[in-house]
């Protein structure tokens, strides 16, 4: 049968079931709620697995309480979901162990990450926690770019790096906080060493 | 209520449970590692100088490169699309710690199948890959071969690549001394397509078994002759 002779069937478009887009609800640890599309969630391995395991229907999503993300605040989560919505449907990079790929920051990501350093580090942490590979890549690249062309002294200021002395002091303080007797033992050891004793015991 | 509980043992990302300020120092080592991986060699080198803990961190991150060529005056390192050129004609001894660091973290993806072994003492450590044309080691200026070749550098890339010093050295031989011509040359560089092979240079294949001390001795021997 030629195409011209094929019977024409009137289709009632209203009768075709239209698949509704599902929007999941998430809640940050400061009780801010976000609605995120199913496709956007696929960028996060952690969230994707979670919603798959829960097997929510459209009604469940509306009627049940929002999924709480206990470790991330609203400000950070907003950035994460904005990123996921913009990059929804994109392929997730796979680390095949070969030569590392060059990471380029797209314009949208650059604007999104035009934030203060504290928030940027929170974003890295959130991307890692939620297993969003590409967001982690671009945010790490952004942190790396922050250091570009800086002297070691400038790097200390940018990253708030402690000097060796400050590092040592912090370690000592942490050790003492953990074991208050450690300092006494150390002093006793030093004292015995001064007295010429070979063994502490 | 369903929730994403703490799958990994970590602090909160911001919010009530988080520290006042999240910064580089609060990041777990694996994330610092991921950031260093994205840094250029120069940045890694500078970060390495800030403290012992950062040095340990930077030293633990491998550096992937396609090719490295070390000659008596300079080193070229090709990573993906960019080539870094470091000219150490002057103050050679200052570069030894840098070269030791570089060779220690380097992970080479050299594809040259023609490895010719010589009877060099350093065969124990390295394999030398001789080039078709050899030039005397003492020659200070390397000629640019005909059919000039550079990668597609943009003006910004030019800032990153330490090529200016090398070009400054060869300008009298190749392009004359007119500063105007010299300025136009930099404009042209962006359009050149490939990188000039370093004539007479050797490719040194790093053996990961080598100890840093032996490497230091080798580099001192190689560079020290010209001090």
Helix and strand layout, with pairings?
The complex is a heterodimer of chains A (201) and B (227).
Chain A: E1 23-27, E2 33-37, H1 38-41, H2 45-54, H3 58-63, E3 67-69, H4 74-86, H5 107-112, H6 117-129, H7 133-146, H8 152-159, H9 164-178, H10 181-194
Helix pairs in contact in A: 4-6, 6-7
Chain B: E1 3-4, H1 29-37, H2 41-48, H3 52-59, E2 63-65, E3 67-70, E4 74-79, E5 82-87, H4 92-105, E6 106-108, E7 128-129, H5 155-160, H6 164-174, H7 179-189, E8 202-204, H8 212-224
Parallel strand pairs in B: 2-6
Antiparallel strand pairs in B: 3-4, 3-8, 4-5, 7-8
List descriptors.
heterodimer, A: 201 residues, mainly alpha, Potassium Channel Kv1.1, Chain A, 2 domains, 3-stranded mixed β-sheet, 10 helices, 3 strands, B: 227 residues, alpha+beta, 5-stranded antiparallel β-sheet, two-stranded parallel ribbon, 8 strands
Summarize the structure.
The complex is a heterodimer of chains A (201) and B (227). Chain A is mainly alpha-helical and 201 residues long.
Order of helices and strands of chain A: EEHHHEHHHHHHH
> How many strands, what sense, and barrel or not for the largest sheet of chain B?
5 strands, antiparallel
Helix tally of chain B equals 8
Beta-strand content bin of chain A: 5-15%
The tally of beta strands of chain A, per DSSP, is 3
Question: What share of residues of chain B is helical?
Answer: 25-40%
In terms of structural class, how would the helical and strand content of chain B be classed? Answer: alpha+beta
Which band does the percent of strand residues of chain B land in?
5-15%
What gap, in angstroms, lies between the N and C termini of chain B? 71 Å
Q: Kindly state the mean pLDDT of chain A as a whole number?
A: 83
Largest sheet of chain A: 3 strands, mixed
Let me know the average pLDDT of chain B.
Answer: 56
Secondary-structure content class of chain A: mainly alpha
Oligomer: heterodimer
Order of helices and strands of chain B: EHHHEEEEHEEHHHEH
What is the approximate shape of chain B? globular
CATH fold node name of the largest domain in chain A: Potassium Channel Kv1.1, Chain A
Number of strands of chain B: 8
- The N- and C-terminal alpha carbons of chain A lie at a distance of 102 Å
The number of distinct structural domains of chain A comes to 2
Q: Based on CA inertia axes, which overall geometry of chain A fits?
A: extended
């Amino acid at each position: 049968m030629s195409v011209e002779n094929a019977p024409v069937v009137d289709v009632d478009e209203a009768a075709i079931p239209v698949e509704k887009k599902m929007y999941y609800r998430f809640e940050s640890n400061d009780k801010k709620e976000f609605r995120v599309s199913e496709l956007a969630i696929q960028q996060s391995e952690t969230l994707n697995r979670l919603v798959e395991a829960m097997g929510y229907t459209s009604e469940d999503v509306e009627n049940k309480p929002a999924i709480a993300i206990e470790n991330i605040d609203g400000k950070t989560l907003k950035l994460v979901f904005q990123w996921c919505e913009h990059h929804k449907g994109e392929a997730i990079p796979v680390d095949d162990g070969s030569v590392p790929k060059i990471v380029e920051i797209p314009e949208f990501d650059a604007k999104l990450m035009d934030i203060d350093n504290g928030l940027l580090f929170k974003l890295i942490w959130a991307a890692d926690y939620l297993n969003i590979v590409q967001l982690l890549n671009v945010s790490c690249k952004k942190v790396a770019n922050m250091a570009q062309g800086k002297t070691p002294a400038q790097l200390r200021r940018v990253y708030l790096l402690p000097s060796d002395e400050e590092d040592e002091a912090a370690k000592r303080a942490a050790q003492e906080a953990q074991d208050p007797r450690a300092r006494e033992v150390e002093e006793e050891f030093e004292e015995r060493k001064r007295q010429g004793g070979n063994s502490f015991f | 209520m369903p929730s994403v509980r703490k799958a990994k043992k970590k602090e909160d990302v911001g919010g009530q449970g988080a520290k006042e300020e999240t910064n580089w120092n609060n990041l777990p080592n694996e994330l610092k590692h991921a950031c260093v991986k994205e840094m250029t060699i120069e940045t890694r080198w500078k970060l390495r100088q800030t403290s012992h803990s950062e040095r340990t961190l930077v030293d633990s991150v491998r550096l992937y490169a396609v090719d490295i060529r070390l000659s008596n005056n300079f080193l070229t390192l090709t990573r993906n699309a960019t080539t870094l050129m470091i000219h150490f004609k002057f103050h050679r001894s200052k570069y030894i710690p840098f070269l030791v660091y570089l060779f220690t973290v380097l992970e080479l993806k050299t594809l040259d199948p023609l490895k010719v072994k010589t009877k060099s003492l350093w065969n124990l450590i390295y394999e030398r890959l001789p080039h078709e044309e050899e030039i005397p080691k003492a020659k200070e200026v390397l000629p640019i071969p005909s059919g000039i070749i550079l990668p597609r550098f943009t003006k910004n890339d030019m800032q990153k690549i330490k090529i200016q010093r090398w070009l400054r050295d060869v300008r009298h031989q190749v392009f004359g001394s007119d500063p105007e011509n010299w300025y136009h040359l930099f404009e042209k560089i962006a359009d050149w397509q490939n990188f000039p092979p370093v004539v007479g240079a050797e490719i040194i294949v790093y053996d990961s078994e080598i100890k840093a001390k032996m490497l230091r001795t080798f580099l001192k021997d190689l560079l020290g002759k010209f001090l």
